[in-house]
Design brief:
There is one protein chain. The protein is elongated and about 30 Å long. The relative contact order is 0.23. It is mainly alpha-helical and 44 residues long. It contains four helices and no strands. The longest helix has 9 residues. The protein has one domain.
């Protein structure tokens, strides 16, 4: 979730950064709608 929200924030495609095996493992992350700013604030 953290990685996906960060890639959404910076405009990167998470699929291009993950190998095919990791993409299969984390298919569920495509449906996640978590805001990077919320995650960032929770760790400060």
């Amino acid at each position: 979730r953290v990685f996906k929200s960060w890639t959404d924030e910076v405009g990167a495609e998470w699929e291009k950064l993950y190998t095919a095996a990791l993409q299969k493992k984390f298919l569920w992350v495509k449906n996640e709608k978590i805001n990077w700013k919320e995650i960032k604030e929770s760790y400060q």
